[in-house]
Design brief:
Fructose-1,6-Bisphosphatase, Chain A, domain 1, 7-stranded mixed sheet, disordered N terminus
Amino acid sequence: MAHFAMRRPSQWRYHSGLMSTPTPRAEQLSSIVIDVAREVGIHQVCEVGMERKDDGSLVTESDFEMQRKLRDALKAAWPQHDVLGEEMEFEEQARAIKQLSDGVFCVDPVDGTTNYANGFPFFGVSVGLIDQTGAQLGVVYDPTRAECFAAERGHGAWINGMPLNTTGGMEIRRATACVDYKRVYRRLSERLVASPPFGPTRHLGSSTLEWCWLACGRFHLYIHGGQKLWDYAAGALILSEAGGIARTLDGSELRCNTLTKRSVVAAADETLYEEWSAWINQNMQDTGHRR
C-alpha cells in the first residue's frame, strides 16, 4: 500500500521551511525532485550551452544546475546523507560512495542529455537513496509527461502516487524488448537482431526512464551492456518493487556499492526473466562468451 495519497505531480509541493522527517520518504523526495526540475525549467526541452565529456557524451548547463540545486535541497532536508552526482569529479564520487553506511543520495540530474539537448522529449531526473544493503528509496521524474515514479524498499512502487505493478503473464515471443544494441557484446547483438526471441524492440536513450517504463508495462524485457550507478540506483528499485526482476549478464545482483559499469538483464516478472535469461545464456555460450 502506498504511503501517500494519490495526487498529480502539480500537487506535490516541497517547501524548505517545513520540517523534514528524519528518514526520507517517497512523497518528500518526489516533491523536491519535481520542484527543482520546474525551477530549472528542463520540461521546456531547450538548451543553449553544451559540451562533450571525456567519454564523448554531452553535458549541458542544465545538468550542472540541476545537480547543484538538487544537492542543496537534499542536504537542506536531510543533512545526514551525502550526495553523489553524475557530474561530480570522480574523486568526489569516490569519497561519497565511501559513506554508504550513512546513506547516500545518488543523483542523475538529467538522464538522456543527448535527447534533451536535441529536443527529443525522453529524459528524466533520478534520485536514489542507497546504503550498504542497496537502494532504499528511489524517485524518477519525467518532466515532459509529468510522470513521477517512486519506490520505497519493501513497501511498493508508485506512479504519480498510484500503485505501480509490472505486466505479468506475457509470452516472450509477444513481449516488447528495450535493447541497447550498441553496448551489448557484438555477437550477442547480432543474434538479437537476426533471431530475437521477442516481438518488437525499442531503445529511447534514457536508462532511468527505461527502467520505469519496464516497471509500468510499456516494455517487458530489457538488456543493456553497461550502466553506471546513477543510471540504475532508483530505477532498479522501482522495477523490483513493481514486481520485476533484474540481474547482470553473469546473473549477479545489481549492487549499489561500485562506480564500475554494470550490465543489465531484466524482465517484467520471474517467469519471463527465466526464459529471457536462458536464451541469453545459450546464445552467449554459442558465441564464445560465458556468463
